[in-house]
Specification:
By secondary structure, the chain is an alpha+beta fold. It has two domains: 77 residues; 37 residues, no CATH class. The protein is 50% helix and 11% strand. It has a four-stranded antiparallel β-sheet, with no helix packed on it. It is elongated and about 60 Å long. The two termini are 38 Å apart.
């Protein structure tokens, strides 16, 4: 896990990070960190074109049309976005709210059928007796 340190940020930049972050499902600090990573990659590789990266992240252009450096920046953006979305995902709670059973894999790779309340009904197709 990355460590963090406090830093001062210009109010205008922070406000922009809040606005853009909301559209990208990121907090303002996450948006600032994302911009910092992009800036680092741009400075490290002069072959990176920010507009191409932004267009690809927005789905307007193809990843395959980017050069290797630009693809690296896009992959970092996708990884940030995926991590944020996954951190907010709680399918068990959503299924419980909807009153639906659901299936997932346990730590041993077995298929587990859960009732809407989360109790285990079956493991690998075998009924489980409640305790």
């Amino acid at each position: 896990m990355a460590s963090t340190i406090p830093t001062r940020v210009d109010r205008e930049l922070l406000d922009s990070a809040r606005v853009v972050g909301d559209t990208m499902s990121r907090s303002a600090p996450q948006q600032l960190a994302h911009w910092a990573r992009i800036g680092r990659e741009i400075e490290l590789g002069s072959s990176v074109t920010q507009s191409k990266i932004a267009d690809t992240l927005a789905g307007r252009t193809s990843y395959d049309d980017l050069n290797a450096d630009e693809q690296a920046v896009v992959r970092a953006g996708w990884a940030d976005r995926a991590a944020e979305l996954l951190s907010n995902l709680n399918l068990a709670a959503e299924f419980a709210t909807a009153g639906r059973t659901y299936v997932d894999l346990d730590h041993e790779g077995r298929v587990v059928l859960h009732a809407a309340d989360g109790t285990i009904l079956e493991i690998d197709g075998n009924p489980v007796t409640p305790k």
